[in-house]
Amino acid sequence: MKQLAYLITALLSLQLSIAQNTTTNIEMLASNWNVPKDATFEIFDNRETLLLTSGRATANNQKFKNGTIEVDVYANSVRSFAGITFRKQEHNMEEVYMRLHKSNQVDAVQYTPIFNNESSWQLFREYQARVNFKNKGWNALRIEVDNTSAEVFVNDKKVMSIDHLRTNQNAGEIGLFALFSNRFSNFRFTPKKMGNSETVNRNPIDPNIITKWDITKAKPYKEGALHFDDFSKEKYSTVTTEKSGLLPISKYLKKTSSGNFEENTEDYTIASTTIHSNNGETKLFTFDYSDKIIVYLNGKVLFKGNNAFRAKGIQYMGHIDINVNKLYLPLKKGENKLHCVVIDKANGWGLIAKLE
């Protein structure tokens, strides 16, 4: 009987192992996908394809945790974006996409988390890669996901490592993303059982980094309508930054206008912190932001800036870097209140700062 029990256990383990490593092909048929109204399924290049004009397509009744996701994308030299979404839960997900018009440029491939239906690519310049795309035929995009990390391949060449998937979601739906029309084919995924996820180190990389902010809820922004006297009437909640000091604001706040990129209207939040000084002194505030900011110290405006996409020229991306802006703060003895009004339209709502 013991031998029979061992045999049954071994067979069940083998079946589970096979199931974990079996590739599922999701055909490009309307019955398999939840797509925007303007998406079309058609035969192209002797393949079943999905032509996705704009937005996201989600595979029906599929959940993904770890393993490999693959898709073929037809070559496209005009400005367009095409990629894979995974671990989608409502309006949060991970996303890797190709900027097909940027072949051999430093940002040809991009990873970004999607928080509350908002892309945050401006906040994650470290997750870009230079890739040469095929200008004819099909480009193969593959993502290998392992708990909190992932590796990205284009045409079987590894192009990017993602050391920390930002949504902290360990499972969810899978699908596709496109902007300005792209054609997809041969979508498939292979689940794989992984080991336990490693704990991500949350300790700040610099002791001078501001790691906690008090923020207000998102509100529509109107030029000239803010009054400092109203700031104290707002309700604030305390949030924690990443170890780099980055505060991805959309992770914590749902904007009143989202998901439409530059067609969004602007929203703002007030991010506040208290600085204690034993004596009157001057401290260096080093910071960056996306898209716009107004900095107040003890009720007085010290800085206004615009770091939005293309705000400083057609090629200006608006990435953030903690060492870009430097402001000397004249602190009084005792408690000092620093308020940063951070305004955003699209592509990444963020704040990063340190005090020296």
Protein described:
This protein is mainly beta and 356 residues long. It has 2 domains: 2-191, Jelly Rolls; 212-355, Jelly Rolls, CATH 2.60.120. Helices cover 5% and strands 47% of the residues. It has one helix spanning 2-20, and strands at 24-26, 33-34, 40-44, 47-59, 67-74, 81-89, 92-99, 109-115, 118-119, 128-129, 138-146, 149-154, 157-162, 173-191, 212-215, 219-220, 237-240, 247-248, 267-277, 281-290, 292-297, 300-306, 325-331, 334-344, 350-355. Strands 1, 2, 3, 4, 5, 6, 7, 8, 9, 10, 11, 12, 13 and 14 form a 14-stranded antiparallel β-sheet that branches. Strands 15, 16, 17, 19, 21, 22 and 24 form a 7-stranded antiparallel β-sheet that branches. The chain is elongated. It starts with a helix and ends with a strand. Residues 5-18 have low confidence and may be disordered.
Can you tell me the number of structural domains?
Answer: 2
The end-to-end distance, rounded to whole angstroms, is: 71 Å
CATH architecture of the largest domain: Sandwich
Helix/sheet category: mainly beta
- Report the CATH C-level class of the largest domain: Mainly Beta
- Helix and strand element order: HEEEEEEEEEEEEEEEEEEEEEEEEE
CATH topology of the largest domain: Jelly Rolls
% residues in beta strands: over 45%
What's the gyration radius in Å? 23 Å
- The shape, in one word, is elongated
Instruction: Supply the number of helical segments.
Output: 1
Largest β-sheet summary: 14 strands, antiparallel
The CATH homologous superfamily name of the largest domain equals Exo-inulinase, domain 1
What fraction, in percent, of the residue positions are helical?
under 10%
Q: Give the overall pLDDT as a whole number.
A: 92
Strand count:
25
